Amino acid sequence: MLRRRQRKKPRILQWCTLHVLWMVVLILMAVGLAIQTLGMTDKKRMRLLEVEQAGVAAATGLVAGRPVEACRPRTHVMFLKTHKTAGSTILNILYRFGEARNLTFALPAAYQFGYPLLFNTRRVKFYSPLKPQEYHIICNHMRFFRPQVEKIMAKGTFYFSILRNPVTLVESSFNYYKGSSLAFKKVESLEQFLGHPWRYFSPKERGSHYARNLMWFDFGFDHNANASAAYVDLALAEIEATFQLVLIAEYFDESMILLKEALCWELEDVVSFKLNLRNNASVRPMSERAAGQIRRWNALDWELYAHFNRTFWRKVERYGRQRMGADVRALRERRRELTELCLQGSSPVDASQIHDRNIRPFQYGRARIMGYNLNANLDGKTRERCLRLVMPELQYKDLLDAKLFPSAHSGKDLLHV
Question: HEC profile for the chain?
Fold first, then answer.
């Protein structure tokens, strides 16, 4: 039986069918894209809008046609003053800022908050938990203990500190604390100590923290702990969670610019002269061998410094290298201007050569601490301003103490300004 021959579709009909299929695919793709776009969450759309507005604000200084609100200077500040790290200069900056604005300082009864014991609110002069007191700034030496600090400092307080290369810090500590650390008292030189540290060092002896991992100790940790990676990482994470900014002493001017930015202060607020500065005659450069011994003996301090040195430079990168360079130059120029205005000569002098005994720095240990002479022809207001720039920390603390607690100082001989 003959089969019927199937009739083929005309070529034009085959082409039309394929064309229709492709059109359907394209339409479905367009619909899917539209659904995806329309289905974007409100949160994502708001984020895109915020980014766009931020770009407009940066370019024009306006948001919705109104000027962008400038940041407000922060006045609640906690500074952990670590030892031998240029902390005295920062203390002077904080004292001047707070005094000029009538801020309230949490002051120790003497000059430190019970150091080397962990900080306790009982060490704050006239503090009482029964009579709440708003404190703006706390900045004198302490061994940090966050739960107690948070009892007196307001929520939202800005926490910061400063570190120094352990190699130069140990060399300085040996000169300054040789009479306070039994480990250092047993040797004639730092090199002798570093050669056999366990021969002279005992964790239970007085002043042992001055001889090993001093910065780690100041942050409230065990300076004799095993420097395991897990322990170090845990401690560093805790510090990062508490302190918004950790400065580096070797880059002091860059540190001041970062501090100014973080606190929304002015350049004038962070300009300073170096205080508690040693005579160069007592500074000894360390050999490579000694430097390596210091890093190994102070392994915890080295990990602390290396970590926050890296975070410091990441902050500088975010700030902008060119912008940082310009701001550092402006800071140094302002310091030069104040040097010419305030100081007799352009350099610090030995304490014995300071004419005004009220501004002679306290001498401690084997180091010779230097200070400044003021120009003799300053008018009253200018002299007060210059005086505060060079005022050693002990005298300045006494001055603030007298202002905060005048009845406790009646009849005492205080610094006249």
Answer: CCCCCCCCCCHHHHHHHHHHHHHHHHHHHHHHHHHHHHCCCHHHHHHHHHHHHHHHHHHHCEECCEECCCCCCCCCEEEECCCCCCHHHHHHHHHHHHHHCCCCECCECCCECCCCCECCHHHECCCCCCCCCCECEECCECECCHHHHHHHECCCCEEEEEECCHHHHHHHHHHHHCCCCHHHHCCCCHHHHHHCHHHHCCCCCCCHHHHCCHHHHHCCCCCCCCCCHHHHHHHHHHHHHHCCEEEEHHHHHHHHHHHHHHHCCCHHHHCCCCCCEECHHHCCCCCHHHHHHHHHHCHHHHHHHHHHHHHHHHHHHHHCHHHHHHHHHHHHHHHHHHHHHHECCCCCEEHHHCCCHHHCCCCCCCCCEEECCECCCCCHHHHHHHHHHHCCHHHHHHHHHHHHCHHHHCCCCCCCC
Q: Given a cut of 90, is residue 145 above it in pLDDT?
A: yes
Question: Does the structure show a pLDDT above 80 at 227?
Answer: yes
Which of 84-93, 373-382, 401-410 shows the lowest per-residue confidence on average (mean pLDDT)? 401-410
Beta strands 277-278; 369-371: pairing state: antiparallel
- Considering Cα of 231, then 81, then 193, then 165, what sign does the dihedral take? positive
Rounded CA separation 353/360 (Å)? 9
Residue that the structure tokens 């006249």 belong to: 416
How do residues 380-413 score in pLDDT, each as one tens digit? 999 999 999 999 999 999 999 999 999 877 655 5
Question: Residue 343 pairs with which residues in a beta bridge?
Answer: 374
